[in-house]
Amino acid sequence: MDITQFVVSSRDKALLYGDYSTYRTQLAHRLLNIRKKLRVATRHRGKYNHKANNIKPEQVAQDVSYARLQLLTAERAFAQAMAMKAAHASNKKGITGHTRSHIVSRLDKAAKYAADMSDLLQEDASGASDVDRLEAQAYAAMLRGAAAFEKQAWELCLANYAAVWAIYSALSSASATRADIFRDLLTETIEPSLRYAAYQLKMPRSKPIPIIAREALSSAKSVAATPDTGALVASVNKIDPSILQPKTAATADGSESLESAAPGTVGGVVASTRTLTWRSREVKIEDATIASAWAALDLAKARLEAQLVAGGARLAPKDKAAAYDDVLTVSQDAVDATKAAIDDLRNEGIPQSDPNMQLLYIARTAANYEMISDRIGRNRVLTGPHDGAVVQAGPVVTRKAKGKAAVPRPEAPGRLLARLKEKLVLYDGTLQSLETVKELPGVAADVELSEQLDATAKYFVALKSLAIARSHTLAGNAANALALVKLANDQATEAAPGLTDADSESAQKKNSPLLSIHVSAADVSFLQNLLQAELQRARALVDIEKQQPSAGGAAKAGALALSETLGEYPQGRAVDLENIVTYPPRIQAMPVKPIFLDIAWNYIDYPSKAGGIAGVASAVGAAVSVAKSELSQQAAPETSSTPPPQQEQPAKRGWFGFKR
């Protein structure tokens, strides 16, 4: 029948263009159509037939419309109650007693019809499936919880909403197609109402919703969904037994275990006993929120480990890093939970010397350490294999022409430099995270942990120096590259003893594919061997550069080409035949003839060979006199209307006998 999807889609479609009054009108029309179809509609001026509501399970098996009849009747009563509530929501006095009683009566009617439909579907003769029966129970309990919410009967409201939460949580994990609908109902309607009812009953706000729901169902004698809460719990456990059970540490394959786990599992945290182990110190967690956060962190790490094992080498570094997001989110929740618990104790005036406060400080340090460790592990995944010590330069495949085979081309130096810059950003973030770990409470007093963190910092400084050295090698600075490789080799040599001892102590983490703040001895050994080879290579490049002739190299770089200095005689130096022209050519300014010379040529006559200098002088004088006469004519005012007699103008000739 898809009861939940039918109700949710009908409400969303009606509220998209109107309000609950519009929804009630639409339901009235649909009810009339169904009654006409089933031939139970009341005739005009006829008497209402009460027997039409006495539906039998056999009728539901023959036609689902009989169940839809009761479903739509319950929805119409619910829509009327919500319309009245929305109409009086803007009043300053709020909802008065008469209006509230009217709303409660409509919700009671809706819950009654929903319970009748649930009872019909529970019969085997109705032909309903187990999922339909659970959805009908959840729908009836949700309406009964809404009525109890308006009555302010908080125990009944809590019990009904707990039943709805348990059913929809189980169905969301079992049905992948409709999981979004159930989750939206849980997050938008059920969980806020459940929290508010628990708040009215003076329950601690730090208590998780699964524990609230389990306690409410165990203490309630009956809910609207069923008179026997034990049968409801059994139905939920049949679908997903982890919904109403306390979550414990996760198993290695990523599944949740309901049995009490032994200490020393993933992260050393066991949620069933609410204890965690940090640096050989066992801390008993009293706050339920912190215990739930640690259990969720164990589950997230187990799922991540299973995902990495299943993916293997097929996963790209970006995909592996994206898989760490869930773990980082859950670890941040654990940090926030510990901080909130400490702030609550501070507000109550409890001093720091109190044992509970000290235990919370240890839990906060452990939570921050785990979060920063996961963050560093994500950065190590992004840098590539062996923490970015190996350069992976994939060839760029290009095609010369259509129909020809692809030709591989080596990666451009610019791309290699860009990838080295990305690695440097990740190394800087890792070193900053390590400095943050050193500032955590209790870390400075732990000498062994401080030495391990210093060795880890030197390890990443060596990797950073190696990346910078490779960029200098690409730029042609062999001496700088040699100095940086030597620095990286020294840092790795100093970090090796501390990381080797720490790796021998944490031998149980060797086989885990999860990367964290702990660096294995194999990684340190690989980096040392690589740096030894890089050091020899850098020394060889510097030696080759020194042996090459470099006389005049600096002068040649800034000297002009021979083609630019043809008008100068080389004094005191020989002609450099290797610098004849500038190559590659570049854009330069070149001298041009000013434009006023072109205008002057129009007024100058070239003298003949016989005229000589006198001809030149006479031509220049004639040009000047003509120019003065034209200026005087333009400046003089017009005294008469008769135009002046036109004088013969001398012929203006240019280079080719026509004007310019």
TrEMBL record:
Pfam families in the cross-refs: SRP68 (PF16969)
InterPro entries: SRP68, SRP68-RBD, SRP68_N_sf
Region (Disordered): 631-660
Protein location: Cytoplasm; Nucleus, Nucleolus
Keywords: Cytoplasm, Nucleus, Ribonucleoprotein, RNA-binding, Signal recognition particle
Composition skew (Low complexity), residue ranges: 631-641
Highest taxon in the source lineage: Eukaryota
PANTHER family per record: SIGNAL RECOGNITION PARTICLE 68 KDA PROTEIN (PTHR12860), SIGNAL RECOGNITION PARTICLE SUBUNIT SRP68 (PTHR12860:SF0)
Family: Belongs to the SRP68 family.
Protein purpose: Component of the signal recognition particle (SRP) complex, a ribonucleoprotein complex that mediates the cotranslational targeting of secretory and membrane proteins to the endoplasmic reticulum (ER). The SRP complex interacts with the signal sequence in nascent secretory and membrane proteins and directs them to the membrane of the ER.
Name the UniProt record assigns to this protein: Signal recognition particle subunit SRP68
Gene name of the record: SRP68
